[in-house]
Amino acid sequence: MLVQNTGAVISIAFVLAVVTSSVPKSVLFAVFSGLANHITNAQLVPFMANMHTALWCLSGISLLGAAISAARPSHLKAEQELQARSAATAAPEKVAA
Fold first, then answer.
1. Which pLDDT belongs to residue 36?
2. DSSP string for residues in the chain
3. Full residue range of the structural domain in which residue 27 is found
4. pLDDT band at 59 (very low <50, low <70, confident <90, very high)
5. Which of 15, 28, 80, 87 is buried deepest, with most CB atoms within 10 A?
6. How many domains does the chain have?
7. CA atoms within 13 A on the CB side of 41
8. In a domain, 93, yes or no
9. How far is CA 64 from CA 67, 77, 89, in A?
10. In a domain, 9, yes or no
11. Distances (CA, A) of 97 to 58, 72, 89, 91, 92
12. Does 39 reside within a domain?
């Protein structure tokens, strides 16, 4: 859970840093304040290009994480399944007591 929350916080910070890196402040204010109806498409192009860059980078990181997770040794998976089963069988006993 800690790693998942840390990843979420870091990914949000990463996306905001990349997206806002080359977009003028006036355009950022309009986009994030909900006043984007007065912005031309030409002003939104850097914002959208940076958003695509950030999301492609995060997709690559996610795929890398999935590959690393899939490469875990099978004995670790078996131990975790055994622990999960023992925790699941112990939980009803605690509730019944």
1. 67
2. -HHHHHHHHHHHHHHHHHHTSSS-HHHHHHHHHT-GGG--HHHHHHHHHHHHHHHHHHHHHHHHHHHHHHTS-HHHHHHHHHHHHHHHHHHHHHHH-
3. 2-72
4. very high
5. 15
6. 1
7. 0
8. no
9. 5, 19, 34
10. yes
11. 47, 38, 13, 10, 9
12. yes
The residue behind tokens 């980078």 is: 57
> Residue 18 falls within a domain, yes or no?
yes
pLDDT of amino acid 63? 94
Mind listing the pLDDT tens digit for each residue in 63-91?
998 999 888 877 777 778 888 888 878 76
Tell me what pLDDT residue 18 has: 87
Kindly give, in sequence order, each residue whose CB lies less than 8 Å from that of residue 23, ignoring residues fewer than 6 positions away.
31, 46, 47, 50
Q: Which amino acid is at 97?
A: A
d(CA 23, CA 30): 11
| pLDDT > 90? residue 41 | no
pLDDT tens column, 6-36: 888 998 998 888 888 888 888 888 777 877 6
